[in-house]
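subagent[fold] <- orchestrator: predict structure for attached chain, return tokens only, no commentary.
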Amino acid sequence: MWNEDRPLELLKNMPHVLTAENLAQIQQVIDNDKFLNSKRLRGDLCGRYAPFCKNCDKTVNKPCAVAYVRMKIKEGLQVQMEDIPAETPEEIAEKKEAKAPSKKIRIAVARRK
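subagent[fold] -> orchestrator:
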């Protein structure tokens, strides 16, 4: 359904640290393709357009581009985004929970003999 070749070629020709302008270019390519597919399928494909949609973070400025780049980073592409972490907020929270020590309380019960 989606054309991965076009944003990937664009990404390969960009610097290793992506600026807001670079993300805007990637977002435009993805939006154009998503619009054409939405029109063809007669429905909005936001959130189900491509594999990276499952990691969409709508709190960032260019959500499709950021989700796409995050997917590529997980696949091993050596790029970074200026001012945007490579992980989603959910992934950051999961890492913090995994590192935090367990706060279990153990209560002893005394028994009479």
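orchestrator: received. Logging for downstream: The CA atoms of residues 18 and 75 lie 17 Å apart. The longest helix spans residues 20-41.
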